[in-house]
Predict the structure.
Amino acid sequence: MKAPTLIDTHCHLDAAEFDADRDRVFERARAGGVEAIVVPAVERANFAAVRRTCQRYPGCLPALGLHPMYLDRHRPECLEALGAEIARQRPVAVGEIGLDYFVPGLDPAQQEYYFVEQLKIAREADLPVLLHIRRAHDQVLKQLRRFRVKGGIAHAFNGSRHQAEVFMDLGFKLGFGGAMMYPRALKLRRLAAALPLGAIVLETDAPDIPPAFARGGRNSPEYLPQIAAVLADLRAMAPDAIAAATSANARQVLGLA
């Protein structure tokens, strides 16, 4: 019987960090059982790079959005470009979008403007969203209650159990990745062990948020099996069962066959 495959629901495979060896990275990920990789855009300037990456590598799926950390590069006309590119590519999600109240200098009002406008775009296109959230869970949830979208994924989730439950009630899955592998990440590991398995999807966020064994280096989608193995240990489950469940969750929330 074929082993269950994995889905990396958040990986910036188009990033410059992979320019030297992108083909080999992709081949190693596929060899390790990574069936699909969601590649989110972060600004208008990389819409085309995401499109080319997903055309080149089988199983790579585009998401398109304007990331809050690139706020200084966004203009209102970028929202029009986003809508046009969504019509052209028909991505699996609108993302990476959200709010970041951790990084200094990112104007909250401007962040909220782009976040709300992209929620409207997602609602109009009937697409889920990929959420970037740092120190802004309640603010993100406030807007999700106002502008109901077709669910999505709270990427790199690190909120409370109560916030997790509210996201789940709104049709969202919660993304867990390399941060869960650090022994001192006690709250995150408790959540990974205790939340309903049906709410969890796996991700790398490569090249960012490397797991403990790659600390200080580049993260990679080829590490997803090790991330899945840690989740299996935390939940006292077989890795194949974790792979099957999290991949089914990803297919459901992203509308994949």
